[in-house]
Amino acid sequence: MGHTGSAMLPLHGGKAPRWLFSRMVSLSECIVDIMLDEFGPRGLLEHLSDPWFFQSLSCVLGYDWHSSGTTTVTCGALKVAMDRPNLGVTVCGGKGRVSLRTPKEIKEMSQVFNISDYKTEGMVYASRMSAKTDNSLIQDSYQLYHHCFIFTENAEWIVIQQGINEERANARRYHWGLDHRQFTRDPKQDILCKSRLDEALNMTHNESVESQKTCVDLVRDNPMKLRRQMVRQVPDNQSRMDTWSGIQSSVIEMPRSVNWDAVRAAYEFQPRTFEELVSMRGIGPGTVRGLALVAELIYGNRASWRDPVKFNFAFGGKDGVPFPVDRRSMDKAVEVLRAGIQSSSIKGSEQARALKNLRKCVPDAVPEKLRSVYAH
Question: What is the pTM of this model?
Answer without folding.
Answer: 0.76
